[in-house]
Please model this.
Amino acid sequence: MEKALFIPLKKEHFEDFESGIKTKEFRPYGKRWNEKNCRVGRQVLLSCGYGKYRRLNGIIKSFTKVPAKDSEGRDPFYSIYGTDPDKMVAEIEITLLDLSQLNIKQKIGHRIIELRQAKEISQEELALKAGYDKSHISSIECGKTNTPLQIIYDIACTLGVGLSEFFSGAIFNENSYG
Model:
Protein backbone atom coordinates (compact mmCIF):
# COMPACT_ATOMS: atom_id res chain seq x y z
CA MET A 1 0.00 0.00 0.00
CA GLU A 2 1.30 3.41 -0.94
CA LYS A 3 1.81 5.70 2.02
CA ALA A 4 -0.68 8.55 2.35
CA LEU A 5 0.67 11.92 1.25
CA PHE A 6 1.21 14.02 4.38
CA ILE A 7 0.05 17.64 3.98
CA PRO A 8 0.61 19.91 6.99
CA LEU A 9 -1.65 22.97 6.98
CA LYS A 10 -1.92 26.22 8.87
CA LYS A 11 -4.73 26.08 11.42
CA GLU A 12 -7.06 28.33 9.41
CA HIS A 13 -6.61 26.25 6.23
CA PHE A 14 -7.10 22.99 8.13
CA GLU A 15 -10.31 24.32 9.65
CA ASP A 16 -11.50 25.44 6.19
CA PHE A 17 -11.01 21.87 4.90
CA GLU A 18 -12.68 20.50 8.03
CA SER A 19 -15.75 22.71 7.52
CA GLY A 20 -15.92 22.04 3.78
CA ILE A 21 -15.13 25.63 2.74
CA LYS A 22 -11.81 24.61 1.18
CA THR A 23 -11.30 21.71 -1.24
CA LYS A 24 -8.04 22.72 -2.97
CA GLU A 25 -4.51 23.08 -1.69
CA PHE A 26 -1.81 25.01 -3.55
CA ARG A 27 1.86 24.08 -3.31
CA PRO A 28 4.97 25.03 -5.29
CA TYR A 29 5.24 22.66 -8.24
CA GLY A 30 8.40 20.58 -8.02
CA LYS A 31 10.02 17.48 -6.61
CA ARG A 32 7.35 16.78 -3.95
CA TRP A 33 4.32 18.46 -5.46
CA ASN A 34 3.98 16.98 -8.95
CA GLU A 35 1.79 14.63 -11.02
CA LYS A 36 3.65 11.51 -9.85
CA ASN A 37 3.44 12.17 -6.11
CA CYS A 38 -0.01 13.77 -6.27
CA ARG A 39 -1.69 11.23 -8.52
CA VAL A 40 -5.48 11.13 -8.60
CA GLY A 41 -6.79 8.55 -6.14
CA ARG A 42 -3.84 8.73 -3.73
CA GLN A 43 -4.76 8.97 -0.08
CA VAL A 44 -3.78 12.12 1.78
CA LEU A 45 -3.43 12.92 5.44
CA LEU A 46 -4.19 16.57 6.20
CA SER A 47 -2.71 17.71 9.48
CA CYS A 48 -3.23 20.85 11.53
CA GLY A 49 0.43 21.82 11.60
CA TYR A 50 2.70 18.91 12.40
CA GLY A 51 0.66 17.71 15.37
CA LYS A 52 -0.71 14.20 15.64
CA TYR A 53 -4.18 14.90 16.96
CA ARG A 54 -6.03 17.04 14.41
CA ARG A 55 -5.95 15.13 11.16
CA LEU A 56 -8.27 14.49 8.25
CA ASN A 57 -8.15 11.69 5.71
CA GLY A 58 -8.90 12.23 2.07
CA ILE A 59 -8.04 11.34 -1.48
CA ILE A 60 -6.72 13.41 -4.35
CA LYS A 61 -9.61 14.16 -6.70
CA SER A 62 -7.65 16.15 -9.27
CA PHE A 63 -4.21 17.58 -9.88
CA THR A 64 -3.44 20.56 -12.11
CA LYS A 65 -0.18 22.34 -12.85
CA VAL A 66 -1.00 26.03 -13.17
CA PRO A 67 0.93 29.30 -13.40
CA ALA A 68 1.15 31.28 -10.17
CA LYS A 69 -1.05 33.86 -11.90
CA ASP A 70 -3.95 32.18 -13.66
CA SER A 71 -5.38 33.25 -17.01
CA GLU A 72 -7.87 35.58 -15.33
CA GLY A 73 -5.15 37.44 -13.44
CA ARG A 74 -6.02 36.02 -10.01
CA ASP A 75 -3.17 35.34 -7.61
CA PRO A 76 -4.16 32.44 -5.36
CA PHE A 77 -0.55 31.67 -4.63
CA TYR A 78 1.97 34.48 -4.95
CA SER A 79 1.26 35.98 -1.54
CA ILE A 80 2.60 32.79 0.01
CA TYR A 81 5.41 31.72 -2.32
CA GLY A 82 6.48 34.87 -4.17
CA THR A 83 5.72 36.68 -7.39
CA ASP A 84 7.93 34.93 -9.94
CA PRO A 85 5.77 35.05 -13.11
CA ASP A 86 7.33 31.82 -14.39
CA LYS A 87 6.59 29.90 -11.20
CA MET A 88 4.26 26.93 -11.55
CA VAL A 89 1.84 25.85 -8.87
CA ALA A 90 0.45 22.44 -7.99
CA GLU A 91 -3.32 22.77 -7.51
CA ILE A 92 -4.41 19.69 -5.57
CA GLU A 93 -8.14 19.07 -5.17
CA ILE A 94 -8.90 16.87 -2.18
CA THR A 95 -12.06 14.99 -1.26
CA LEU A 96 -12.33 14.16 2.43
CA LEU A 97 -13.21 10.58 3.25
CA ASP A 98 -16.47 9.92 5.05
CA LEU A 99 -15.18 7.40 7.57
CA SER A 100 -18.73 6.41 8.53
CA GLN A 101 -19.05 4.75 5.11
CA LEU A 102 -16.16 2.34 5.72
CA ASN A 103 -16.88 -1.33 6.43
CA ILE A 104 -15.60 -2.93 9.66
CA LYS A 105 -12.44 -4.33 8.00
CA GLN A 106 -11.56 -0.86 6.70
CA LYS A 107 -12.30 0.73 10.09
CA ILE A 108 -9.98 -1.71 11.84
CA GLY A 109 -7.27 -1.00 9.28
CA HIS A 110 -7.75 2.75 9.61
CA ARG A 111 -7.55 2.55 13.41
CA ILE A 112 -4.29 0.59 13.22
CA ILE A 113 -2.82 3.20 10.86
CA GLU A 114 -3.99 6.00 13.17
CA LEU A 115 -2.39 4.40 16.25
CA ARG A 116 0.77 3.37 14.39
CA GLN A 117 1.31 6.87 13.00
CA ALA A 118 0.71 8.40 16.44
CA LYS A 119 3.53 6.18 17.74
CA GLU A 120 5.62 7.12 14.71
CA ILE A 121 6.45 3.54 13.78
CA SER A 122 6.54 1.94 10.35
CA GLN A 123 4.55 -1.06 9.15
CA GLU A 124 7.80 -3.03 9.20
CA GLU A 125 8.48 -2.14 12.84
CA LEU A 126 4.90 -2.97 13.87
CA ALA A 127 5.05 -6.29 12.05
CA LEU A 128 8.35 -7.22 13.69
CA LYS A 129 7.23 -6.26 17.21
CA ALA A 130 3.79 -7.91 16.87
CA GLY A 131 5.21 -11.08 15.30
CA TYR A 132 3.48 -10.88 11.92
CA ASP A 133 4.66 -10.48 8.36
CA LYS A 134 4.69 -6.91 6.97
CA SER A 135 2.48 -7.98 4.05
CA HIS A 136 -0.12 -9.23 6.54
CA ILE A 137 -0.08 -5.91 8.43
CA SER A 138 -0.40 -4.08 5.10
CA SER A 139 -3.36 -6.23 4.10
CA ILE A 140 -5.08 -5.53 7.43
CA GLU A 141 -4.43 -1.77 7.16
CA CYS A 142 -5.88 -1.78 3.63
CA GLY A 143 -9.06 -3.41 4.96
CA LYS A 144 -8.61 -6.39 2.64
CA THR A 145 -8.77 -9.17 5.20
CA ASN A 146 -10.99 -10.43 7.98
CA THR A 147 -8.79 -10.07 11.04
CA PRO A 148 -9.23 -12.45 13.98
CA LEU A 149 -9.62 -10.80 17.38
CA GLN A 150 -6.35 -12.40 18.57
CA ILE A 151 -4.40 -10.57 15.87
CA ILE A 152 -6.18 -7.28 16.63
CA TYR A 153 -5.29 -7.84 20.30
CA ASP A 154 -1.62 -8.54 19.47
CA ILE A 155 -1.39 -5.43 17.31
CA ALA A 156 -3.21 -3.24 19.86
CA CYS A 157 -0.89 -4.39 22.65
CA THR A 158 2.14 -3.74 20.46
CA LEU A 159 0.80 -0.22 19.92
CA GLY A 160 0.37 0.26 23.68
CA VAL A 161 -3.43 0.10 23.90
CA GLY A 162 -5.92 -2.50 25.05
CA LEU A 163 -8.90 -3.68 23.05
CA SER A 164 -11.21 -1.27 24.86
CA GLU A 165 -9.09 1.72 23.85
CA PHE A 166 -8.57 0.31 20.35
CA PHE A 167 -12.31 0.12 19.73
CA SER A 168 -13.03 3.45 21.46
CA GLY A 169 -11.48 5.36 18.53
CA ALA A 170 -13.76 7.91 16.87
CA ILE A 171 -14.00 5.74 13.76
CA PHE A 172 -16.02 3.16 15.73
CA ASN A 173 -18.43 5.69 17.23
CA GLU A 174 -20.98 5.10 14.48
CA ASN A 175 -24.19 3.08 14.64
CA SER A 176 -23.48 1.38 11.30
CA TYR A 177 -20.57 -0.98 10.82
CA GLY A 178 -21.11 -1.69 7.11
Remarks:
- The chain has a mean pLDDT of 84.
- Helices lie at 11-19, 78-81, 104-118, 123-130, 134-141, 149-158, 163-166.
- Residues 127 and 134 are 5 Å apart (CA to CA).
